[in-house]
UniProtKB/TrEMBL annotation:
Belongs to the aldo/keto reductase family. PANTHER family: 2,5-DIKETO-D-GLUCONIC ACID REDUCTASE, NADP-DEPENDENT OXIDOREDUCTASE DOMAIN-CONTAINING PROTEIN. The keyword Metal-binding does not apply. This is Aldo/keto reductase. Coiled coil: none annotated.
Length: 279
């Protein structure tokens, strides 16, 4: 396993297991299988509705709590100091733990300042070892950074070979905030798994396009949390530490960057209206 050291000194695995869209009834099994495969970092969220499944797996896996790195996120409907504070307690109960290793604001909407104040309190009380944000573009990220006591340790954003977040990283690096990828495979968009560059480079290392894409992000110091409900795919995604991409190969993959989202923009009014409709 490779690790990054966050801006507060906490070590975090660069490869984790994500449970976005994993059905609650399957989450316990999937997380147990991921841990058996070797994953030690698990990423969930209040909005996923499966924190309890993660918690059950943590309780049953047999590993000491300190060997696991657990991330969860506060949903929009829990924005604001009091609601966020209460939701943190609820998440801890569902996860069956006294603390989370990383606590994030899920979306840059609602009273995220109040949410972050509750998170700073959790950080000081050691119920969160590190705090940060998710989906914060440079404008809102910088706004929060300059008016908070604890600089975000992580910003989890859509990041893959077709959208490498080069602009956002410029600002995050100034403040020591680590980029964490959601959607490292772009959910298959742009014929991701058939991409000739990824497949050609992968073939040279006897690896798949998916493994090549993960290796690229890891070598670019991006934390990745690929998700799968199939054990064989979990194992495949974990086999990315036994090869290294050359500088030329990295450059070829860098050239795949389109510089824009393949999903949605948080600056788009229609997207904002959609998020508000689900609160």
């Amino acid at each position: 396993m490779e690790y990054v050291t966050l801006n507060n000194g906490v070590k975090m695995p660069k490869l984790g297991y994500g449970v976005f869209q994993t059905p609650p009834e399957d989450t316990r099994r999937c997380v147990l299988e991921a841990i058996e495969t070797g994953y030690r970092s698990i990423d969930t969220a209040q909005a996923y509705g499966n924190e309890e499944g993660v918690g059950n797996a943590l309780a049953e896996c047999g590993l000491p709590r300190e060997e696991l790195f657990i991330t969860t996120k506060i949903r929009i409907s829990n924005a604001g100091f009091e609601k966020a504070k209460a939701s943190i307690e609820t998440s801890l109960k569902k996860l069956r733990t006294d603390y989370v290793d990383l606590l994030l604001i899920h979306q840059p909407f609602g009273d995220y300042y109040g949410t972050y104040r509750a998170m700073e309190e959790a950080y000081k009380e050691k119920t969160a070892r590190a705090i940060g944000v998710s989906n914060f573009y440079p404008d809102r990220y910088l706004d929060l950074v300059h008016f908070s006591q604890v600089t975000p340790a992580v910003n989890q954003m859509e990041t893959h070979v077709f959208f490498q977040q080069k602009n956002a990283r410029t600002y995050m690096q100034k403040h020591g905030t680590q980029l964490m990828s959601w959607g490292p495979f772009a959910e298959g968009k742009n014929d991701f798994f058939k991409n000739p560059v990824l497949n050609e480079i992968g073939a040279a290392h006897k690896k798949t396009a998916a493994q090549t894409a993960l290796r690229f992000l890891l070598q670019k110091d991006v934390i990745v949390i690929p998700k799968s409900v199939h054990r064989e795919r979990m194992e495949e995604n974990f086999q990315v530490f036994d090869f290294t991409l050359t500088d030329e190969e990295l450059k070829r993959i860098e050239e795949l960057d389109g510089g824009k989202s393949l999903f949605f923009s948080h600056h788009d009014p229609d997207t904002v209206e959609w998020f508000m409709s689900i609160v």
